Amino acid sequence: xxxxxxxxxxxxxxxxxxxxxxxxxxxxxxxxxxxxxxxxxxxxxxxxxxxxxxxxxxxxxxxxxxxxxxxxxxxxxxxxxxxxxxxxxxxxxxxxxxxxxxxxxxxxxxxxxxxxxxxxxxxxxxxxxxxxxxxxxxxxxxxxxxxxxxxxxxxxxxxxxxxxxxxxxxxxxxxxxxxxxxxxxxxxxxxxxxxxxxxxxxxxxxxxxxxxxxxxxxxxxxxxxxxxxxxxxxxxxxxxxxxxxxxxxxxxxxxxxxxxxxxxxxxxx
Length: 269
Description:
Jelly Rolls, single chain, five-stranded mixed sheet
């Protein structure tokens, strides 16, 4: 996003610290770093990851998201997700409730690209996409998906060992060639001020479906409720992406999320 100036992270909100895990070290099998990864994954379930090598692909994904969100709403709505349960395509602002009463609705819009469509392009596996997505399918989205998978497969191999599973078990449940609900996502949330920020979340509280989430946080906005807490805390934005461990779900999801012009890029496997 050339020329974009991002505001500093606020110093008057509750935050929660995360461990910083070195991908180079865990890939090399460093015992101490592997143990730190497992601690992070099995306590809070979130951690920062450095030296992952996906920086350029992530930057390109943010650009793709910004280009797509700049299209007229009428054009984006041609590729709207619909109500059939699939998540591929465009999600407009306010399409989801953020509380049980349904009084409040979300403040985010998504463009979700199926992993299967990205890797098979120009063949259509699930749906078609806006021109801004198609223009970057081969040189931005597919490389992001492949590199992000490389990172997650290294981590899943470690989790196989820690869980006492045969090597390759978790990777086989998240195989690149299998058709699935995996997706690359870019998300935008429009700025809000005053009471709306404190009282209504941009997106409803949730656990990502999938095994791992790979979230690149440029501006801030991700919140977590740590074990033993009853209030949400922000995760401070960082040059390192945030990873979330949700091993029990074992589905494959890719998500490049961007909030506020955009600010998040997330991969979930």
